[in-house]
Design goal:
Helices cover 39% and strands 23% of the residues. It is built from 9 helices and 11 strands.
Length: 260
């Protein structure tokens, strides 16, 4: 588990302990940009779960699969280590930059990697339904996305909101240039080829995402609300099992894991 000290990392460590069929060989976090071993039991409050190691390469070599919920710079480092060891990964880190994506693409030539801004089963069903709804309703319906997360989330909009916008854009034949992140001032009438994305932050909200498809005389709203981080952990473990057994290199998403 890479990024084991974060909210999601702790939830996944607990889920591994509860699963009973998976073995956590290492829990890794970072301080000052350096990978350091952490005691898995201390991180998750579930007792001793196994050996910790202190280097990316060591973890990548020992593990059947690495689950990563860290930061873009840490993800890039781990992806490079996994590429060298040909170790599959599940990456739930959001806000990935060019360096991280380049490292992931290099890994995908050597091993299987699932990149998922949201590993929840329900929200990935939302992605699927959103694309279908946008396609069926056609250009007469405008798409707007609203997301809300806890006040400690550092990136905005969420990776889930961006992926939701991408799925809708694909269905509508738009590109990412259609995304508008909030509006202010005299912006004029809304153009047809636009998808608005608004990020709200406050309290301890785990994650709410709503797609509004507004047309003449009616609108459809598709919403997913996360009540507990364990749902993301459950999805991450499902992805880990899948990516460890898929038997071919490549870059995949949760849609592949779920068979969409």
């Amino acid at each position: 588990m890479h990024g084991a000290g974060g909210r999601m990392g702790r939830a996944i460590v607990r889920a591994i302990a509860d699963d009973g069929k998976l073995a956590l060989i290492a829990a890794i976090d970072r301080e000052g940009g350096d990978a350091i071993g952490k005691d898995a039991g201390e991180l998750a409050g579930v007792g001793s779960l196994g050996v910790t190691v202190s280097a990316d390469r060591a973890l990548a070599t020992k593990a059947d699969v690495v689950i990563d919920f860290s930061s873009p710079i840490a993800t890039a480092a781990m992806a490079r280590a996994c590429a060298a060891a040909r170790t599959p990964m599940v990456i739930g880190t959001t806000g990935l930059d060019a360096e991280a994506n380049a490292a992931i693409d290099a890994l995908a030539k050597e091993a299987a990697v699932v990149v998922a801004p949201n590993t929840g089963i329900g929200v990935n069903v939302l992605f699927h339904l959103a694309a279908e709804a946008a396609r069926l309703l056609g250009p007469a319906f405008d798409a707007e996305i609203v997301e809300m997360h806890h006040k400690k989330k550092v990136d905005a909009p969420s990776g889930t909101a961006i992926r939701l916008a991408e799925r809708v854009a694909e269905a509508k034949g738009f590109g990412p240039e259609s995304f508008v992140h909030g509006r202010s001032g005299q912006v004029g009438a809304r153009p047809e080829r636009e998808i608005g994305i608004v990020a709200l932050r406050g309290g301890d909200v785990i994650g709410d995402h709503t797609l509004v498809l507004a047309g003449p005389g009616e609108r459809i709203e598709l919403t997913h609300r996360a009540h507990d981080r364990s749902l993301f952990a459950t999805g991450a473990l499902r992805a880990a099992r899948w990516v460890a057994s898929v038997g071919r290199a490549g870059r995949f998403g949760m849609g592949d894991v779920l068979g969409f």
